[in-house]
Every structure is written in C-alpha cells, then in structure tokens.
Design goal:
- The protein is globular, with a radius of gyration of 19 Å.
- A hairpin with a 3-residue loop joins strand 1 (29-33) and strand 2 (37-42).
- It has helices at 7-17, 56-75, 107-118, 133-144, 155-173, 176-185, 245-264, 279-290, 319-322; strands at 29-33, 37-42, 78-84, 93-102, 149-152, 186-188, 196-197, 207-208, 211-212, 234-240, 268-272, 295-303, 323-325.
- By secondary structure, it is α+β, with helices and mostly antiparallel strands.
- The strands form four sheets. Strands 3-4-2-1-13 form a five-stranded mixed sheet.
- The chain folds into two domains: 7-119 and 314-325, NADH Oxidase (3-Layer(aba) Sandwich), CATH 3.40.109; 133-303, NADH Oxidase (3-Layer(aba) Sandwich), CATH 3.40.109.
- The structure holds flavin mononucleotide (FMN).
- Flavin mononucleotide (FMN) is lined by residues 21-25, 57, 60-61, 64, 120-121, 123, 196, 214, 270-274, 298, 314.
- It comes from Saccharopolyspora shandongensis.
- This is Nitroreductase family protein.
C-alpha cells in the first residue's frame, strides 16, 4: 500500500472540491479522510425535496466535487484510483479516491487545477462571437473522457431543448412549493456560505435568444448585462447510458471537466438543469434529442464573456465542516 498522504494534502483537495458547482449552491457533500484515501458522502440533509426529489442532481453535484478533488490531487503530485459507489449497502457513500503513488504534475494538470479554482457560473449574456469547432471538440472530449456523452445541440436538437426549457420554466413558475424552495437558497448576500447570491442571478424571467433561463425570482440586484440578448451561446448536453447513482456521478464529473476546460480557454459557462428536473420535459428531451437511447442529465451554456470582470462569486462551506476522519468500518 502507498504510504504517506499528509493530512494537509487531503485538506487541499477538499478545499478545491468545495469550489465545485452544485444545484442552488447547496454543496451536498461530506468527506472522510483515511490513511491513503478520501471518501465522498452525499449529505442528504441538504436535499431539495421539490426540485430534486430523487437526489439525482445532488449526486451530479457530488460528481463535480469528486472531479475537482481528483484534479487537485493530480496537481499536488498524487496518482489516484477512483471507485464510484464502492458499496451499494452504504448508498450515500458515493466514491472513494485511493492515493496509489506520486508523480510530478504536468503543466496541463496544474493549469486545470487553476481553472477549477477560478471557474464561476456565469449567468450573464455572452458575446455574439461563435466558439470555434476546435474548442467545442475539446469540451466534448473532456466530458467523454470521464465516461459521459456530450453533444453540441444544434438544429432540431437545439430547438427541442429550447422548447423544453420554456415549458419547464412555465411549469415551475406555477408551483408555489418550487418557488418557495428556490427562494430559500437565492438572493442571499455574497458573504453567505451557501446559496446563490442576488448579484449572481439574472433578471427575473430572462431569455437569451432561444433559451429561457431559470427564474431566480425577484432578487434585489440582478447582475449587470453587457452581452448579446439575441444569442444564448452554445448549448452542450450531457447524457449517460444508464440513470443510476454511478451514471449521475459520471455526469457530474463530466460537467466539471467541461466547465474547467472552458475556463482554461477563457470561455464562460453556466449549467442549465431546469428542463431535466420535470419528468415531462426530461422525457421529451430523451425522446426528441436522444431517440430514447441514453438518459439526458443536464445542459451547459458556453460562450465568450464580454468583460474581464468575472461573475459575482458564491460562498462556500469551510473544509473543517466537511472533512472528518474515516469511520473504522470503512477503514482503508
Ligand atoms: C446539477 C447542477 C444544476 C445546476 N442548475 C443550474 C441552473 O439550472 N441554472 C443556473 O443558473 N445554475 C445552475 N447551476 C449552477 C449552480 O447554481 C452553481 O454552481 C452554484 O450556485 C455555485 O456557484 P458557482 O458555480 O459560481 O461556484 C447548477 C449546478 C449544478 C451542479
């Protein structure tokens, strides 16, 4: 067994993992540190019972945190082996990262870790300029390398997605319980450790080109717009071949990989999940875009930012609240 993972290395990995995107920034994760391993657990106490009753998106969020932790460990010179959902008898124990060796980090690994730390969800309008095909190919590859399918939605596929987002926004808008759940996590001040700050949210009812954004409600100070209202940017859709816990973790790893790669290229990005949260619209996407083969998990809006000033940052919980010692019955 490889010996010698200092606790501060594991703490640094968890610190970067806290920067991962999560639905409404709920950060539904806990970590446990073993002698040579990090274990990721789903924190069900942070569940969103109306928006995400099956914990699908919370598991996707944990997959993104898992990918961030692995990126951090690579940059810290550690080689790792990842086990997804290692023990179905302990369903909330989502993943184990075993540290199996050391190696000097490559420039690419260091750059990716830097991008993971800088990345923010950018819900603003983007510039009208197209994203070159070479970069889109890299984004697709980044997501596919972790086992998901990533497509750039164009033509009829994009039309079907746009229709599903508009329908989902209307269905959600009519639900008092959904709006109450969203409001509890939105419009918070920038100093809060979780939730979406008012300044990071779009104007209520915003639509960029063909895409209707999630309505975060009447936030006090919506972000400033300087981009093109006519064009939402590129829409990438992440799907998986199954629809279980492992598939949701893979989808989360993929969105992290795509968003961090986009950040490296200087692109802005924002997850869009509303159309995937309602059975009717998710089924429509599955049928119309995937011809019932595979499971759509989430979309990403990608485009060029119009200003060097990044979007408003969101808060995070502290490492000491999230990282605990591994319990004996799961000791490595
Ligand atoms: C599974 C998932 C679904 C998300 N859905 C949306 C969405 O529909 N609309 C949106 O604006 N942001 C969405 N986000 C982005 C989160 O709100 C964002 O990651 C969180 O507020 C933390 O902010 P940050 O990404 O800037 O660090 C989603 C993120 C994840 C992981």
């Amino acid at each position: 067994m490889y010996e010698g993972v200092d606790r501060d290395v594991l703490e640094a990995a968890v610190a970067l993992a806290t920067r991962a995107p999560s639905l409404f920034n709920v950060q539904p994760w806990q970590w446990q540190a073993g002698a040579n391993s990090l274990h990721l657990l789903l924190d069900r106490s942070r569940g969103l019972t109306v928006t995400d009753p099956a914990f699908r998106e919370l598991t996707i969020s944990c997959g993104a945190a898992l990918h961030h932790a692995v990126v951090a460990l690579h940059a810290l010179g550690r080689q790792v082996r990842v086990h997804l959902w290692p023990d179905p008898a302990a369903p909330d124990r989502l993943a184990a990262i075993d540290v199996v060796g050391s190696a000097d980090p490559s420039q690419a690994e260091l750059a990716l870790a830097g991008a993971a730390g800088r990345r923010r969800t950018d819900r603003r309008q983007y510039a009208p300029d197209a994203v070159p095909g070479r970069i889109l190919d890299d984004l697709v590859l980044a997501g596919e390398e972790v086992g998901a399918k990533v497509m750039v939605a164009e033509g009829d596929d994009r039309y079907a997605l746009a229709r599903a987002f508009a329908k989902a926004a209307a269905l959600h808008g009519a639900r008092e319980d959904y709006r109450a759940e969203l409001a509890a996590w939105t419009g918070l001040s920038e100093g809060m450790a979780a939730g979406v700050s008012a300044a990071a949210a779009p104007r209520p009812g915003a639509q960029y080109g063909d895409i209707v954004l999630r309505d975060f409600g009447r936030v006090a100070i919506a972000h400033e717009e300087t981009g093109s209202a006519q064009n939402a940017g590129c829409i990438l859709m992440v799907s998986t071949s199954a629809d279980d816990t492992v598939a949701h973790l893979i989808a989360g790893e993929a969105i992290s990989a795509v968003l961090c790669t986009a950040e490296l290229e200087g692109l802005a990005g924002s997850p869009l999940s509303e159309a995937f949260e309602i059975e009717q619209t998710r089924n429509a996407i599955r049928h119309e875009v995937l011809a019932d083969a595979g499971y759509p998990q989430l979309a990403l809006r990608i485009g060029w930012p119009t200003t060097a000033r990044g979007p408003s940052p969101t808060g995070r919980r502290q490492v000491h609240e999230l990282l605990h010692d591994l319990l004996d019955d799961h000791a490595d």
